[in-house]
What we know:
Blueprint: E1 5-10, H1 15-18, H2 21-29, E2 33-40, H3 61-76, E3 79-85, H4 110-123, E4 127-130, H5 140-155, E5 173-177, H6 182-194, H7 202-206, H8 214-217, E6 221-224, H9 229-238, H10 254-260, E7 263-271
Parallel strand pairs: 1-2, 1-4, 2-3, 4-5
Antiparallel strand pairs: 5-7, 6-7
Helix pairs in contact: 3-9, 4-5
Zinc ion binds near residues 11, 12, 139 and 142.
Amino acid sequence: MSELRLMAVHAHPDDESSKGAATMARYADEGVRVLVVTLTGGERGDILNPAMDLPEVHGRMAEIRRDEMAKAAEILGVEHHWLGFVDSGLPEGDPPPPLPDGCLGVVPLEHPTEALVRVVREFRPHVMTTYDENGGYPHPDHIRCHQVSVAAYEAAADHRLYPDAGDPWEVRKLYYTHGFLRQRMQLLQDEFAKYGQEGPFAKWLKHWDPDHDVFAKRVTTRVECAKYFAQRDDALRAHATQIDPNGDFFRAPIEWQQRLWPTEEYELARSRVPVSLPETDLFTGIEDR
Ligand SMILES: [Zn+2]
């Protein structure tokens, strides 16, 4: 089998470990070359782990997040590339304040697109993953990540566009990750109840509009990757400033997750090869697997 390559495009360091991480670990383990591209340095991330809220951490976020990212990539067994743009931060307030000068959210779309096209033409992935048009989470960099990824998927194949950014390459398939699913959360919550425990997800489920059903309406592809859930959690914990190891998302035992929901979910957004949905493998239709 010739070499297969997967590129996952993310907004910030840590996003790769919370969205599709077990899938990447699985493919890397199976010999696929996996490259994570992170658009920003995550410089404006808050410290979300009380244990890391230390004087020596403040003011050194950019540097610390580089180290955390390197550790996470090593745990997942993937290659990593920084695209070099600046985190927009999550604007809070009503109305929200304008985005800071020079950040990813305000630079012209062509700049990060050209930079990503260059990486696509060099790495030549068969499959790319990114977020849907809502960003999966309403952060301006996540929306931007979607826009940049879709633009680069199209432009990388077009020799008329960005001619100085390498020889054209046709990525075969583009996927959106869909990890935040009500059905999965409900199953885990019910499992806590079965053991007479109060699950951590009630506050999420209570406000979740059942009509907003990404799983039924958008998921096309479920990748079995239960064996890699522990690796996913270790990678996430490597982002120590961003992740509280005592947080809600680590409370459901891995054994429950493996038994109740052993997959990660994707939506096939674009394809240049014939497909038949649903699928269980991001590379279906590309090679004999
Ligand atoms: Zn993010």
